[in-house]
Amino acid sequence: MSDKxxxxxxxxxxxxxxxxxxRLASALRLSPIPLYLLAGLAIGEGGLIPLVxxxxxxxxxxxxxxxxxxxxxGLEYSSRELLASLRTTAPSGLLDxxxxxxxxxxxxxxxxxxxxxxxxxxxxxxxxxxGVAAKLVADLGWLGNRETPVVLSILVFxxxxxxxxxxxxxxxxxxxxxxxxxLAVAGALTAVAVILALAARHGEAISxxxxxxxxxxxxxSLIGITLVIAxxxxxxxVSAAVGAFLxxxxxxxxxxxxxxx
Length: 261
What we know:
Helix content: over 70%
Largest sheet: none
Number of strands: 0
Number of helices: 12
């Protein structure tokens, strides 16, 4: 059997399996995420069913799926709402850091991993998955809840903390220069600040100019800009998902209404 035929069979079987799991989750009134995770453990490298031709496609498709999910979530909020929420939830973000980072750091030190690996382990216990959290919020119908912006702002706070920490830790672990790490941090935070400032002041005007025309043109423009910003964010050591979330926040007015549909 040709590789192309195997690719189609694998992708078709995988998507069909996920569709059946989604139906099962709906019948049980659960989010499908736990079932998707179990399917992911059973399929692919180390699982019961290997994926050969479609493995690379599935990996890339998963990354794009997370980016588009966070973009759609960003459409639900304005930049002013996010900035206000970040200011008011800063104490909660710091508490979240202490409660979740410190146990990982202490565990690494107690296990004798050394200071730098222990810091990385603290990052592992601290960071939440923006994609999983966003999917749960959407699946459980919590988008309209009053606490949802707070939850999302804490997730953004976490990613901003790691945008500062990862370049520094990477420079220390890999023998890089501290100057390079500081420049990477400055670039990441500047990019986030510029996007939020532009969205707050000129979001509706930019959206009206950039996303005018046919529905096809709007769709392609939105997806293209989202992927470009996500790629730049990843390059600047900010999560690609956060970059897509910021794009969603930046789209406002009629463009946001059309983007949702």
